Amino acid sequence: xxxxxxxxxxxxxxxxxxxxxxxxxxxxxxxxxxxxxxxxxxxxxxxxxxxxxxxxxxxxxxxxxxxxxxxxxxxxxxxxxx
Length: 82
Known about the structure:
This protein has helices spanning about 10-20, 40-50, 65, 70-75; strands spanning about 25-30, 55-60. It has one domain (about 10-75). It is built from four helices and two strands. Helices cover about 40% and strands about 10% of the residues. The chain has a two-stranded parallel ribbon. By secondary structure, it is of the alpha+beta class. The protein starts with 10 loop residues before the first helix and ends in a 5-residue tail after the last helix.
């Protein structure tokens, strides 16, 4: 995903997450361990674009562990009402 972003900054992801926030009740970004180092820059970009309720959930999982069906199911269940 980082390769898809503009290499000069995080403006593109900030713009996109702010746009999603305008249309969604919940915006949660689950971050795999290799991307944790970028998390503050992403948060800053999201805030610059006016988003106030994007929730970030950093994990200690590697990317492919994070996207396994069981892990994704668990992440989504946390968002559902009890």
